[in-house]
Design brief:
Distance between the termini: 62 Å
Order of helices and strands: HHH
Shape: elongated
Strand content: under 5%
Number of strands: 0
Number of domains: 1
Number of helices: 3
Helix content: over 70%
Mean pLDDT: 77
Low-confidence stretches: none
Amino acid sequence: MNKYIIIAVSLLLAFPALAKTDVEQCVKTHDSCSKSCLELDSEGSKAACVAKCAGQEAKCAGEIGLGTTEPFMRKKAKELEDLLNQFLDDFLPNTPSPPADTPEHTKT
């Protein structure tokens, strides 16, 4: 359970301006979920409930991470695409465009 809190805190430190409120909400939700687990009768039920709460917190923190990294990943994908296009343009010959006066029956 502590490692999930560490993950949430690390996200908080990594993206303080973007994710502070969201991570705090994840931690608060996890804490209230864990407290409700303590009210269950059997040890097995408590353990399953705490595991469910940890999974929900991990999902919450993961969604925050994905939301903050998506623009960065899109930018890097575009840069890679541009690099590959430049690289391939150096090696592949240019394909000539078709003549403008092609017969009507060949146009689709």
